[in-house]
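Morning. Coffee machine broken again, so started the prediction first thing and wrote up yesterday's gels while waiting. Chain of 149 residues, entered below exactly as on the submission form.
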Amino acid sequence: MQAHPRSPRSRMFDRPALTELVHRFYDAIRADAELGPVFEAELHDRWDAHLERMVDFWCTATKVSRSFRGDVYGKHMALPRIAPPHLKRWLRLWKAYTQVVFPAAEAVVLQDIATGVARVMHLGWFGRLPAQGALENWMETEGADACTA
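Came back before lunch.
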């Protein structure tokens, strides 16, 4: 049986770089006045396991591996107290850290994936899809300036 060639997307990313991104991003989440309390309330003593799952998620989303199994939507829909500013801040920080860890082309791919995830979460949490271009606009308004690390 012949091995399938790796996809172009999988050649852009590798597990060590995605691990760096996830850890730096979630360090910022934990320190963030808006998002830190939301995440801490859910993860308080399970951060290490969550970070490993998020690395698996992003490795799967970028086709580096097929290591993630789980119900992302269901887990997130169970979170209490989520409001649009939380999603906006999450996207802004994600953009900032993708720009720090990856070259521009790779950062944009990760931002596009995150925007797709955010679109589905927005529908689930708030009962409607965001306005056309709204999520992308949220990321544009702050970008790498949000990154203090």
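The mean pLDDT is 85. Going to sketch it on the whiteboard this afternoon.
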